[in-house]
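Interim report, section 4.2 (structural modelling).
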Amino acid sequence: MEVGLVGLGNMGSGIAKSLLRAGHRVTAYNRTRSHLDALVSDGVKPAATPADACHGDAVLTMVADDSAVEAVVFGSSGVLSALPKGGLHVSLGTISVSLSDRLAAAHSNAGQQFVAAPVFGRPDAAEAAKLAVVAAGPSAAIERCRPLFEAMGPKLLVVGEKPSLANVVKLTGNFLIASVLESLSEAIAFARKSGVDPTVLLDFLTSTLFNAPVYKTYGGLIVEGKYEPAGFAVPLGLKDVRLVLQAAEAQSVPMPLASVIRDRFITAIARGNQHSDWSVLGRIAAEDAGLPAAKTDGA
Amino acid sequence: MEVGLVGLGNMGSGIAKSLLRAGHRVTAYNRTRSHLDALVSDGVKPAATPADACHGDAVLTMVADDSAVEAVVFGSSGVLSALPKGGLHVSLGTISVSLSDRLAAAHSNAGQQFVAAPVFGRPDAAEAAKLAVVAAGPSAAIERCRPLFEAMGPKLLVVGEKPSLANVVKLTGNFLIASVLESLSEAIAFARKSGVDPTVLLDFLTSTLFNAPVYKTYGGLIVEGKYEPAGFAVPLGLKDVRLVLQAAEAQSVPMPLASVIRDRFITAIARGNQHSDWSVLGRIAAEDAGLPAAKTDGA
Amino acid sequence: MEVGLVGLGNMGSGIAKSLLRAGHRVTAYNRTRSHLDALVSDGVKPAATPADACHGDAVLTMVADDSAVEAVVFGSSGVLSALPKGGLHVSLGTISVSLSDRLAAAHSNAGQQFVAAPVFGRPDAAEAAKLAVVAAGPSAAIERCRPLFEAMGPKLLVVGEKPSLANVVKLTGNFLIASVLESLSEAIAFARKSGVDPTVLLDFLTSTLFNAPVYKTYGGLIVEGKYEPAGFAVPLGLKDVRLVLQAAEAQSVPMPLASVIRDRFITAIARGNQHSDWSVLGRIAAEDAGLPAAKTDGA
Amino acid sequence: MEVGLVGLGNMGSGIAKSLLRAGHRVTAYNRTRSHLDALVSDGVKPAATPADACHGDAVLTMVADDSAVEAVVFGSSGVLSALPKGGLHVSLGTISVSLSDRLAAAHSNAGQQFVAAPVFGRPDAAEAAKLAVVAAGPSAAIERCRPLFEAMGPKLLVVGEKPSLANVVKLTGNFLIASVLESLSEAIAFARKSGVDPTVLLDFLTSTLFNAPVYKTYGGLIVEGKYEPAGFAVPLGLKDVRLVLQAAEAQSVPMPLASVIRDRFITAIARGNQHSDWSVLGRIAAEDAGLPAAKTDGA
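Predicted structure of the assembly:
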């Protein structure tokens, strides 16, 4: 297929490579030109504006947050004005439910189609075509995208016809991961201060009830106190929990556990961990227990 | 081996059968005589008091809570007074860290040995010899128990020489399970009220990042709203979270997430769910979101 | 003075009367025309648009929330375009810190002046000229407003030159009131279920350590379970706590207690109390304790 | 009256002086003899054991916590065994609801009478006869005590016939004070980081809605960051919140705000503030916001 791609951060660059490898043609735009240049040798055609990426079968956006999406979609030389009638915009990023609803309405008003298709997976999974894609939107539009999703990873969930349902699923997933981070952080602080070797504890738990990747990966980071470099930085984690809380508030759903986690991320930033991985909640729990940050620091 | 067993509730009865099946001889005491009678045909020899179960190689206790342990150990005709010098008491139940420390001291003062060996698993796992055992205590005493642990399940973790370390691990595990219950409850309430089919959501999550038994089992109960009959009733869940918080407070470790969960269990009881499974946190989250208790109720 | 006033809800109408009584001349605009007509006999001159209220010495805005302020200030026929160079806009409502900052910048760019002057007090205090005013903005502009503030109430606090500082103070005050609501709600539920007469408890507390109006007024409402009609409805309380949390997050200040209160307001709405007074947190606490809503209901 | 007094800490010593000044005769016991000797010149007659203080019209206990009460009441040479039939024990300390119930039962079984009469006020108020007394117990016993209560302060609340009701009121009051501490701590951290002078803020709030002693006193300590020496140390605050939560759990009353406060006190201890006043929650909130501990430190 012939696609446009707006946004070539770590995730967008990986997706571009996977799309090319699957035989799709990619015209891409990125605000920072150097990221784009790095991909030209892989076969990406450069676009000077988001609008320039809006021809072919679909335009994909993978940018940092709501305001970045607003800029590339609603701005001058943006996707909304450039996309032809019947054109298709696929939003791959983690955006708010309310923005997703606004995008659906705006594209519909312009006679265009909109699919929300946020992804689960880190940059290496994006490049290795191992993402899990959660998509929602009009069935016909989803079908048009299917070859693109297949190029991005083996796992596709179609949630329904209303695009923002996919954003709900993505935010729910990230909330659950953040819950694992906080619960492991508290558990490990408690175990350490009680004299239990946290490595032994984690090995046991993740070989029995909790043998899921999320416990193994993040549990290991917390036990080691290895929060830098960030795979997914604290402000991004805070953003996602905030989006969950906003969307839940709009539906009148209280989420007390999400509220606790939000406060912990804010504390992490206030205490100087804004460049750390979101698993740095482990450091916050350790500090609040009067422990050194990790067992290798002497506890 | 020749062992005594005090406590024949659902867990104790299952363990008795597994021990017998592995060739051990079991003399057992239970406060409610009928539970004991039911096991006589399986080969259990009845004891009239805890003291009467205190001969052979070790006496195991598997009773409901701290006060039950205090009664069978420190009471008249209790384990402490009946056990000979060098005798071995193995506590299998989920008890407080502080009681475990008191037991260790009392047995030590009496020239006896004490091992804490709480187990992970439900009654069916106890009967099927599929428990995971977490043990701590003097190495020699642990070694003496090894054939018993092997009869109870394939998985054994030895945490250290101080018995209460095993209780810390058990409580930590139960806290992590309770965290999964609350996070799933909030996530599913949010998804349902946003229009996402929770069955689809759960299938997706448990086939990717959260493919661990604890998410599948409890997620299913919450999605179905199937909280009765209880596998593990709310008051037991509350008790374990309380024990975690007490032990953590004794070490000056704040656990804000555990505090939230404690309040939710109390709310569950206050609203009439004391006989429900601890996954009934799903009903509390649904009610607080103004939802019917489960999707099958019409949401 | 000659002033414009945009917004004639309960608060705005009361303020209009106080201004007139002090001898000021008031030209007012309200979206719903009937509220305006009701004040014409008091001497208010009607304006057809916000712009029509923008002559004289200052224009005051007292509308429901951020989006209402945005509409009357930034919209066509709005305050920003109508106010002359050197003109003064005084925002009396409870708005977000970030909107206050945006207003300050926009008016400054237009060569106009901006003062934020949110008020403490209920509608009856507005009409009786008993409001407490918290003002911030350029000193000269504050001085120009002083006769207006004096007409509104006897208490004036000037916080500084940056307008949004006044909004911080207002939000802080409302957070503290909401904290009183939740703490009294929990305390009274605990006391009632323990068998203490809550009326006796409240009389004692408010005659000793807690002899402040906020405890007497709201404590009485909670003890009586008298949540309707609303003096200040739940969604307004939720809005203010949300604004506190947003402003605090922007400064990286965690506020765990505010987070708890936010969840309780959301729960109140989800359970059908959206038209009740924000003290209805007392009903939520009672329900969560398995109590009837108030002692007069039989507890 | 002729009374015994067990416990001569800061509070007990002040009460002894007030009783003597009102013309009562006091025989006192204290574990640390030096505190007792210091009062002999005031007219206190020394007792060698709690039992030795158990003659006359009543014996009052004012010791640190539940376990100290258990020691002086249930121990050998304790109050329970020494008090004659018809004798009266008045517990003035802040003890648990469950211990109060146990004391009532034990004294009743021994044909003795029991009154719980915890007090509000700091040591200086005890010495100045300005305590507020909350009493519960059999009416006749309360009447016998009335001259003693009048010697302790001008304010007496009689809650009912069941002694532990008085303990519920005392714990409720302390929970409300702790709520003020945490809410002020968060409010002041937010205001400071937003650029508002906290002294100005506090002056304004305590001259309007919050003009109660508890806001003025503790607000001042938090604004000044003056947490040492402790008027009421963190571990005592934590103890009281713990007792509230235990008593509330026994009644199935969730108290989410109390749970947050408990975690904050634990954090305060873990971070080294165990000797500070319980208003040190202000330091915790400041640190979690990345602020220096008080405005005088440069913020």
